[in-house]
Amino acid sequence: xxxxxxxxxxxxxxxxxxxxxxxxxxxxxxxxxxxxxxxxxxxxxxxxxxxxxxxxxxxxxxxxxxxxxxxxxxxxxxxxxxxxxxxxxxxxxxxxxxxxxxxxxxxxxxxxxxxxxxxxxxxxxxxxxxx
Length: 131
Prior knowledge:
By secondary structure, this protein is mainly beta. The protein contains no helices and 13 strands.
């Protein structure tokens, strides 16, 4: 891997509503190959960092261009967690044409609402809903 094969994407994470990341917030951004139908995405680059404050969050994600197949489809994904609990996630696909990127790429994340675990007196695994 040569220095010339390392490319970067400037990513801006914005929230669709209230956009505050708590002091122990963990932000994860990844560049994934999403070309294969009915198969898990293949991660080509990932950045995990702790940050806090009000969105937007601006960061740079580096990737190795020699690992990129121009015939494939790539997308950015974002998760923001606190102490293992999901707070924000992108709910729409953010495809990236890597050969045509100019400027900052904006990814919108949605806040996750926790529903109660107690249903009819029992503890149930209730799915999370997006606000």
